[in-house]
Request: fold
Amino acid sequence: MDSQIYAKKAKENLAAAEACSNAGYCNASVSRAYYAMFQAAVAVLIHKGITPPSGTFGISGFKLWCLKILPRGKK
Reply:
């Protein structure tokens, strides 16, 4: 998996968020910004050598995957 693919998607979605915001489409802007954040987070993890599972991998799957791989604080 190539982190640059996800980084490119993040940049595209961030540009779309800005365009939507400038056009007054607030909800669409927030949606694109949220998706840009998701794509950027996946890019960083792949760049660090942490590869997400194959198959369908949306935001909800990403959240569950992060819960499995990220260290948890001590109680």
